[in-house]
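Good morning C.,

I know you're traveling, so I'll keep this short. The sequence:
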Amino acid sequence: MRALVVDDSRVMRALLVRILTELGFEVEVARDGREGLDRLRELGTVDLAVVDWRMPGMTGIEFVMAVRGDHAYDEVPVIMVSSETDPSQLARALAAGANEYVMKPFTKDVIRGKLEMLGLELA
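The tokens, ready to paste straight into the viewer:
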């Protein structure tokens, strides 16, 4: 399985790459939403996208809306990752098309649980 991690933080990208790799994914990365869309187009499709909420240029919400606006990616599950704890923001992410939401800080078990909820088979 292949995942795309979109996050402007090098540390967060590295953490997500490590967790997803341990769970059996081949992981591609992007530093912001615009680069994430470019990578997605290059890859054709992925089995999962994990995207940070707050990024310069194109935010995670904008990325999710762009992905959901292209029917080629209708089946791609998207997990929004953020330190945002306001329930209205969680609702906003889900309304934009995110399938799940993970609050920072998180653990491998939290990510595993979200992936299992999405029905993804893990290593």
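Safe travels,
E.
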